[in-house]
Input
Amino acid sequence: MSRPLRLEFPGAVYHLTSRGNARQKIFLDDTDRELFLSTLSHVISRYGWLCHAYCLMDNHYHLLVETPRPNLSLGMRQLNGVYTQAFNRRHRRVGHLFQGRYKAILVEKQSHLLELCRYVVLNPLRVKSKRRVQAWKWSSYRATAGLESVPEFLTVDWVLGQFGQRGAQARARYREFVREGLGDRPWERLRGQIYLGSEKFIERHTKGSEEIKEVARAQRRAVRLSLEEIFSRKGGDGATEMAYREYGYQMREVAQYLGVHYATVSRRLRELEAGKKRNV
Output
């Protein structure tokens, strides 16, 4: 299966996760968790990230970060690499700690970041069956809710700003917002495996990605026009070629829509390609 496309641009917002290799634990005790947060703090400072939320579980972690500069891969390479080295030294281990590459979901900030901030801190209730979200020490909830001091690497201004002026009222509204979110399932709105946002947002960030060969067609075109829309905008051979090459429709789908045999569509596409080569 093709690897998902990684989009990096100034101001991008990501939901990031990494899991332990073979589902092993990446945190064996609280010292490991403190070590990870120290490493995260260094990465955030060095690369200028904004961390809006985080949660450390036993065999994986969640981060919500905003990157003012397009440097996600550089920072993640350091975060996972440095922590792996420190973990292995401390526990006298060798080899991979994390399962492959990290997973990054590109998030539309205004429409989805707040709900993801809630989803991330509620993970202990889903996974560890905690009764109260504040009972889990290793997430951003307690600091954002005003139950403890805010660590230097965590940014709470934007989250609390969604509930009015910073202060006791904003924090109380945030706590109520989190309590109401246990049943929320944001991943049902995930598109193309890596996008969480409106159709306009996804179209803006998938433009031109058809040139990247290793990206699966479903990921390249998370949002696409229907065949009816394509043929109403651009008829004839141009629409057939657009549906197949730009929007990822299969030849059989196009043939079924046109009411012709699959071989007819295949032959016409070959003829169009041959004509282009002759004109080069």
